[in-house]
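Shift notes (night). Ran beta-galactosidase while the centrifuge was going.
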Amino acid sequence: MKELLYGAAYYDEYMPYDRVEQDMAMMEKAGMNVIRIAESTWSTWEKREGEFDFTSLHRMLDAAKRHHISVIVGTPTYAIPSWLADKADDILALTHSGPGIYGHRQNMDITNPIYLQYAERMIRKLMEEVCDEPHVIGFQLDNETKAYDTCGPRAQEMFVESLKQKYPDLDAFNHAFGLDYWSNRVDDWAHFPDIRGTINGSLAAEYAAFSRGLVTDFLKWQAAIVAEYKRPDQFITQNFDYDWDARRGGLGLQPEVDQFAAAEAVTIAGCDIYHPNAQDLTGAEITVLGNISRGLKSDNYLVLETEAQGNLGWLPYPGQLRLCAYSHVANGANMVEYWHWHSIHNAIESYWKGVLSHDLQENETYRECAIVGNEWKRIGQHLVNLKKDNRVAIVADSRSNTGLIQFPMDTEDTHGYNRVLRWLADALYRLNIEFDVIPAQAEYLSRYEIVLLPALYSAKEEYLQALSDYVKDGGHLIATFKSAFANEQIKIYADRQPHILHEALGIHYDQFTFPKNVEVAFHEKSGAAREWMEMVFADTAEVWSRYTHPVWNRYAAVTYNEFGKGSAMYLAAMFEDEVLEEVLSAFLHEINFAEPHKISFSNVRYPLVVKQGVNAASEQIVYVMNFSDEEQTLAIPVEAKELLQNQTIASGEQISIQPWDLKILRIC
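Came back to this:
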């Protein structure tokens, strides 16, 4: 990117009166330089089949050009017009909940050939209208794409065909999925039962993986059409979103999309990151979801949607909007774009407020946006294209996510994969240990000194062996409970657990339960065990902590094992955050972890958050952010130029950071 992009999604079609010129002028005044348009407007541009009217599109494009605002155009395929829904009975998806009913968005079967025919025609018509506009800089494919739980006959036939390719021998298929259980055996491919009725978790998980593949194929299909029209200087992106389900831990890995695979369709990764504000703002969601986004292409990414005023209860305190914008950029984002510019006056999202409130006038949110936009015009050349060189990575795995949806860690289905992922990720965040997020693929491991496995429930034997070899060759592994338990089909391994990894970890176990009145203590910290606990025996491992309990105290809760040239730690239960931070800190000390390529801020912890990187001019940039309502102080260990205030800071100088504020240092 030549500059940081800052703006909002914009919908002339939704406005209560004509104000496109006024809106673009307000954006320009606020230092905004990009809008995203078009992804929600199929029925406006094709009110009736074959009758196209792109008047509102060109009104937005022309006004944006006059006000020096770049445009990202979204393909409007995720919300279909009503006339298209009537074309065939199976255009709306048949799901586990039954047939779809028109009204909601994202309710169509993305495998339906009639839908695809009309979607392609709309994409091509749109591209013909916009591709040569010089200020159109890129294209967004669809919107937060999923397979929408499509379970219709066509999708299921495609699923069976995919199984035939993987398992030419029907007996081998039945064995791989354990279908002798409850007489679920498939005697003939022609008799394959409706997937909606299966009680076999492995088969359900395989269909979930197949559905994720439909998303990848759909995005690649759209990308190929867009690529026929786009200029070499225009990008293709997608606004990948994340899991909202609070029962599963919320705001974590999206279970319905294999984002690492789907990102192959785009030239730059994009995402939608939403998070709490006000008293609940921590910045942790910006970090972990941004790290997933950066990991999709191992490169900078675009935040295509985040909140301005947002959902009810999310109105930010003064300073928080600015702090969050900088936190995205400090994480490697090259764009921050709000959903959306104006608050909508009707329909389901009337109370999801944008930059402007319903009166469409300047307000506190707009004025804070103007501070950000005009600061970025002044110093953005130092902040764009920030590259990260992290030595710590967290493995994020879609099949394990699905496995713990099929087999949750409690009977109320409230504790899932993302809760474990966030447990580790948020602890690293509070300790100011920057990390990448990587898929469960062996080729990534050697790039990192430390790899963390949050509940890697489902894993191929080849990958588990690669992890064992990684430790033997000098890597350092931190694995949690529920790791290395089941194979790719989430069929449980039938030997010593954790499968293959038990030697590197130096432990084994064969029993587990829910902790009740159990604590885990380490050093001076102690706290309750939560959600899950395994009864671990230490074989060659050192026991760092045992359960505090009159019966379970013979079992290890935390172990450390040296194996080959490396080491591995096992966390047999989930426990309080303060204890986890102590355990992780002790592990880092034990292996003498250091990042000499980064500026060391020893003992600086949350609510002060430090993020570092190198820009395109090879300048080392350090962000120090205060995620609290109290003033914070710290010593700067090297001489630096503070970019926001244009001041020089001497080595060792003590500085203060106001509540919800930050300093940006260019190291001298």
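The longest strand covers residues 525-538. The longest helix spans residues 201-227.
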